[in-house]
Give the backbone structure.
Amino acid sequence: MLGTFGRIGLIACCCLTTFGTVHGQGGWADQLVDKRRIDFGVVATGADTADVITVTNKTGNTIHISGVSTACTCAQAGQPSSTLLQPGESATVEIRLNTKQFSKKRDTSLTIFFDSPQYGSVTIPISAYIRTDVVFDPGIVRFGNVEFGTPSQVVVRVSYAGRPDWKITDVKMGSSDLSATLKELRRQGGYVDYELTVKLGNTAKPQRLRDIVTLVTDDEASPRVPLMVEGIIVPDISISPENVQIRPLSPGESTNVRVVIKGTKPFVVEDVNCKDMTDCFHVKLDAKSNKLCFVDIRFVAPEKKGKFSEPMLVKIEGREEPVQFMVSGEIN
């Protein structure tokens, strides 16, 4: 039989085994973040400047984020996208720089706290230089919600105080979906004003847009000034369900499934097909134009057994890019 000390030793050994996957020689939480430092570089006064830290559970235990904080209000941390992470899951924390109330050199830090599977924290240094001679109004190119296929534009005023011959020499775009035009409005003494128009093309695919426009100036010390771009390109067509699960079938057996297609305006479905399993899907289409379309699909199981997962392409009249959904199942 185990004595008292033997039982205590066994318990201690079990505890060490349990936490062995999260506790290393250094802080166990350090391994969870994708960045160990945030450097915003040189930014303009009024610019809406942000970055994102991703926390990934690389341990074998459930992790709980108990809180986040910054050492200075010059940087503000948002709430984690999720606080309870199973092994392999991730969460994001957004950090925004307060460029309206603070200026010049700023050094602070972000700390993320954990209370499960054990107490711990990770601290990430944050640095930036907020220049006072360049001001953006508004401080971000915010497109908001833009329907797919619809062009949009945002106008930003760029004001400078300093050298009378100061110039913006170029505008660099991070995405091919964006373009920009620049117009000088005023040059008087040491004050210069520009009108920057940022355009979103009509070919931008549905997505959450997050990018940077960079103004290139003739400043030798700090020639580049970044400006954030945010927006959401909303799909004009949506399909439900996005993943169609077909029940297990034997070769030659058939089943029927239905998908619902919705549009922001009336549309006509020209074709629905599966490139690699063309003979298996038989679709009944309605030639009428509607905002809501029910598509009935008859699936005949092929001779080839096994699992399958294939994209179904939906061709909409007058729309260049097809929309797709997935169909998966198993042939026994």
